[in-house]
Each structure stands twice: as structure tokens, then as C-alpha cells.
Design goal:
Keywords: Iron, Metal-binding, Oxidoreductase. By secondary structure, the chain is of the alpha+beta class. Helices cover 31% and strands 19% of the residues. An eight-stranded mixed β-sheet has the order 1-2-10-7-12-5-4-3. It has a four-stranded antiparallel β-sheet with strand order 6-11-8-9, with no helix packed on it. A two-stranded antiparallel sheet has the order 13-14. α4 links the parallel β1 and β2.
């Protein structure tokens, strides 16, 4: 009966199309039961968090090249990327070539969308991923143990970007400009990751790892009871790679050596994390780190812009498996081959806290 009541509560909430922002604006002082996290999760929130810093890599203005005296610089950067991808699955990049002005415009556009007139925002509320742009609360709203305190916009920005006139006026042109810059940055990082694997710089790009991009805008309203819920539950990303821009509120944590590490915002930098698909094709050489976002009670909403190199829920019949050049008698394949569509279906049928790579283990 309790499960039935929660299901009805989620359905009614979703049909309102007002999101968590609508709840926050209503002036509630207690969060609805559907947002209350299980006791085991709440216990982990109260545990002391490590203050270890995640690796930070200087990309030399976004033009790390092999050129005479600069060749050692490129090798150094590749080695830093390799170590971070193998041991952390998370790293920060600076000096990447994307202007602070564009970053701030993008964050402001996401905030502007979520804080515009509710009736305008409501027009975009939809869970149909055949569309190029949609807005909703929680991708796993109907499969999770508890809902998270956030709203999301999603836009499939590559390889077939929408027209600016088909996007919300508050950030349409900025989103398309930002998408191109993140694509350029992502391609550079895929080159560095390819070299870190001992492969040709274009290897991962030639596998179409950098072909598809899905941009999201996460909005975390102030929560009246932040100690009872999460902004985003523990999960790993269904992507090859994620490029994350976050504002100055903070709350991101990554699980490293069985301890939660705070990843505070650093103005102008991006957080890069390895996704499930890259762990899959590298046969566990690189790791897809689990991470989460803590709910907050500050007066201002937290905003972040994760860009995923993935087709996510778009149909994609391409089949992937562990990269053959990385396999040997001592390193046999750990996963069976799988299409992106099958992987997406596995993702959609489970709550995001459940590791999905387990389903592909040989």
C-alpha cells in the first residue's frame, strides 16, 4: 500500500509539470515523502567527508601539441590524464580555452530557464526523448527508491543540433555556441585519452565516441530539509565522457577508495569524468566513478551544466565491445559486445544507483 501511495504521489507530481522548483516556490517547510532518502543513504550523508583534492590538469590553453620543445609538455599531460582516468575516473581541467564569459552566460541561461514564469516553463515539460529538447524532474522518477531534489533540461546538441528558434529564447543561441566549444574540448580530451591507452590520437574519435553530445542543465532549488534527501543520487554516467560546468554553490561529491570526496567548484575550470561506456570499451582500464550531489538549504539555487558524449535514450544500433588492441591473453575481454540501444534500455529499466556494467560482464 505504501509503495502504491508513493507511485501515485510521483504520478500526480509529474502531471503537475511544475518540477521541484514549483514545490520550492509553494513555500513548503517539509519535503514530500517521495523525496525522503532511505536511512542508509542519510547515514552516509552524515559521515565525515575526505578533503582530498581531485587531480587538476592544465591543458595549456586547449592546444596541447607535439611540437619540438613542447613534445614533453604533451607527454606530461597525457601521463596526468592516464593516471587520473585509471585511479580516479574524475579530474579537473584548467586553461582549456573556453572563455569565462561564455561559461557564465551558459549558467545564467540555465538559471533563467528554470526561474522564468512557471507557465512558460511548463510548456516544455516532457519525457519523450525522441524530441531534441525536454524538461522534467528526475530521469528515474518512477524507478528510484526516492526522488532527488532537482529539475533538469535536456538537449541533444550533436550530431544534429536543433535550430536556435526551436530552443527556449532565454538561452537558445548561447547553448549552441557553448555546445561547439565543449565539443572542441571533448575532442581534445578524447585524443589525450587515446594516447594514454597507447593508441593513435584519433582512435576514440574514429570509434564515434565524440560524435554525439547531450547537454543538460541541472537546477537544484533550496531545500527545506536538505538532510533528508539528495540533489542527485549516487550514480555513474551513461556516457563515454562528461564535461561538467558548475556554479559556485557546491555539493558535488565523488566516491574514491570507498570514501566520499568533496569536489568544490573552481571558477573557470571544468570537471571531467569517465563514463560507463568508456570503462566498458577500455575493459576496465579507465574507471567510471560514482558520484552524487548533496541537497542544500542556501537561499540561492545551485546550477550545473553537464555535457555528456552519448546518444543517451536516442536509438543507436552501433555495437561496442572492449577495444581489441587493448586485449591479450593476460587481459581477456571482461564484457560481451552490446549495442548502445541495449545499454540504454538497461539504464532506463533500473534506478540510476544500480551499476549497469554488471549486466554486461562475461
Amino acid at each position: 500500500m505504501e509503495s502504491f501511495d508513493l507511485s501515485n504521489e510521483r504520478k500526480a507530481f509529474d502531471e503537475m509539470k511544475m518540477g521541484v522548483k514549483g514545490l520550492a516556490d509553494s513555500g513548503i517547510t517539509e519535503i514530500p515523502p517521495m523525496f525522503r532518502a532511505p536511512p542508509t543513504i542519510l547515514a552516509s550523508l552524515k559521515a565525515a567527508h575526505q578533503q582530498v583534492k581531485i587531480p587538476t590538469i592544465d591543458l595549456k590553453g586547449g592546444s596541447v601539441k607535439y611540437k619540438n620543445q613542447d613534445s614533453m609538455t604533451r607527454r606530461d599531460v597525457v601521463e596526468q590524464v592516464r593516471e587520473a582516468a585509471e585511479k580516479w575516473g574524475f579530474f579537473r581541467v584548467t586553461n582549456h580555452g573556453i572563455s569565462l564569459e561564455l561559461q557564465e552566460k551558459m549558467l545564467g541561461g540555465i538559471r533563467g530557464f528554470h526561474e522564468q514564469d512557471p507557465q512558460v516553463r511548463k510548456q516544455f515539460y516532457c519525457r519523450d526523448h525522441t524530441r531534441n529538447f525536454l524538461y522534467y524532474t528526475n530521469v528515474d522518477l518512477f524507478t528510484s527508491a526516492s526522488a532527488s531534489w532537482r529539475d533538469t533540461i535536456i538537449c541533444y546538441t550533436a550530431p544534429d543540433p536543433p535550430r536556435s528558434q526551436d530552443l527556449p529564447a532565454v538561452f537558445g543561441e548561447t547553448m549552441l555556441e557553448y555546445s561547439k566549444e565543449v565539443m572542441r574540448l571533448g575532442e581534445l580530451i578524447f585524443e589525450l585519452l587515446s594516447e594514454a591507452l597507447g593508441l593513435n590520437p584519433n582512435h576514440l574519435k574514429d570509434m564515434d565516441c565524440a560524435k554525439s553530445q547531450m547537454m543538460t542543465g541541472q537546477y537544484y532549488p533550496p531545500c527545506p530539509q536538505p538532510d533528508l534527501t539528495l540533489g542527485l543520487s549516487k550514480h555513474s554516467d551513461f556516457a563515454f565522457l562528461t564535461v561538467l560546468l558548475q556554479d559556485n554553490i557546491g555539493g558535488l561529491q565523488v566516491l574514491h577508495d570507498q570514501a566520499w570526496i568533496d569536489v568544490p567548484p573552481v571558477p573557470g575550470s571544468f570537471v571531467i569524468n569517465i563514463g560507463d561506456l568508456l570503462q566498458f570499451i577500455t575493459n576496465d582500464r579507465f574507471i567510471s566513478a560514482e558520484h552524487r550531489v548533496i541537497a542544500h538549504g542556501s537561499s540561492k539555487a545551485r546550477v550545473s551544466v553537464p555535457c555528456f558524449f552519448t546518444t543517451f535514450k536516442k536509438a543507436n544500433p552501433r555495437v561496442y565491445g572492449p577495444i581489441k588492441e587493448l586485449l591479450s591473453e593476460d587481459n581477456p575481454p571482461k564484457y560481451r559486445d552490446c549495442s548502445i540501444t541495449e545499454f540504454s534500455n538497461i539504464f532506463s529499466s533500473k534506478e540510476i544507483t544500480i551499476p549497469r556494467l554488471l549486466h554486461l560482464r562475461i
